[in-house]
Design goal:
Rossmann fold, Phosphatase 2c, domain 1, phosphatase activity, PPM-type_phosphatase-like_dom, PPM-type-like_dom_sf
Length: 406
Amino acid sequence: MLVVDDSRLQRRLLAGSLKRWGYEVTEAGSAEEALQLCRSEPPDLVLSDWMMPGMNGIEFCRAFRDLSADRFAYFILLTSKREKAEVVAGLHSGADDFLSKPVDGDELRARITAGERIIGIQKELSRSNRLIRETLSELQTLYDSLDKDLLEAKKLQQSLLPERHRVFRGGTLSLMLRSSGHVGGDLVGFFEAGPRKLCLYGIDVSGHGISSALMTARLAGYLSSSAPGQNLALTRDDRGNPVPRPPAQAIQAINELVLNEMDTEHYFTLLLANVDLDTGLVQVAQAGHPHPVIRRRDGKIEQFGTGGFPVGLLSGVSYRQFDIQLQPGDRLLILSDGFTECPDPLGRMLGEDGLARIVASLGDMHDEAFLSGLLWKLSEFSGASDFPDDLSGLMFQRNDPTLGQE
């Protein structure tokens, strides 16, 4: 505790009382001397006379607050002043309390006790704030580490789609994948399924984030061209060569595998399509995935399918299969529900009709430019460049199989 007064007698009287009450007391005969002491050993509580030669109590209080801006101390001014304006000026200078001279011992002790309670609260707040800052710093470090890991995870997930464009004799294929966060649960892909056969797929795992992305990565392994022996959409002919399994049977096999071998609460929608590059016949099966969109060469838009039950919810589910006949110039689009369920600024979803209008408006675009145009139009509809759900899609355009080479 620091007592500041130009009167040695007044300092002695105050210091004597304070020491009897058990306080450690330091004395200063002027504000300038008090500031020097505060620089080396900041006090918790200051008793200062108002009227002193040189720097008065008001000026000392301001200088003291500037000196200890990051550390709270209780400041009591001792004064014979009674005018409200002068008291207000003292409060504006940073004083916490006032005591009138001559100082009453009981009142002094009561004011100091009140000050000690406030000092205790301030110290606890400072300790809590320090802990909060330290915790926030640790959380920021963890966040930075997690963000770095998520960026790497995003690169790995994007690597599941190594080719964004592929030309075949009989068609061209373009793919896109855009997660709403760092990583997501959508995936599109393809693999060759024997001579002149191509298998296309779209997957949309429930939820978002890391667990959905891990599920997607595992499913990609069951539809991989690099491991045909593990690919559930392939089977073998009499000579042991890989050939496409009917899509409905393949989805049923994947459903049973997920339920029997994967301990997960995730489910997912899936669309499988087997394309004959020579005839343009496409065999399709749906498991809750949005209907495929066909844009005919003449600009007509078609959407149809069987709907189907999502994969990973119920054992013994069977799936229906249907055919689509593509003519040269026709396009087949497999898109996730992030398109049809994208909201505009008023919360109204795009829907299948809105999607059909967008697809029709992009008739002059081809391949990757078409998919980029689709995203641009969706952003125009939603009024934002960020979307609430993952977006994935592929487009297969049938060409004349007698022209060009794979």
